[in-house]
Amino acid sequence: MARPSRYPLELRRRAVRMVAEVRDDYPNETVALQMVADKLVLQQHFDVFPVQGRFG
Questions:
Q1: How is the chain split among helix, strand and coil, in percent rounded to 5?
Q2: I need a surface site. Which of 11, 23, 39, 53 has the fewest CB within 10 A?
Q3: Cα 34–32–15 angle (5° rounding)?
């Protein structure tokens, strides 16, 4: 039996789509993967602590 993933399926799918979209913007796939991972972690942080009414 396979071990359950630490990340939800939708997050994994989104990460794959994002890497495919930005792959040509970076010198290699490793850098593209790191940039997407950094963006997703930052986004998750802000999703946990939503800022309401702060920008308008």
A1: 65, 0, 35
A2: 53
A3: 75
Q: Where are the domains of the chain?
A: 7-34
- Six-digit token pair at 40? 């997703």
Tokens 């800022």 label which residue?
Answer: 51
**Burial class for 21, CB neighbours closer than 10 Å (0-12, 13-18, 19+):** exposed
Q: Where do we find the tokens 């997407």?
A: 36
30-51 pLDDT, tens per residue?
999 989 988 888 566 555 445 4
Is there a contact between 19 and 29 (Cβ–Cβ < 8 Å)?
Answer: yes
The pTM of the full predicted model, rounded to 2 decimals, is 0.65
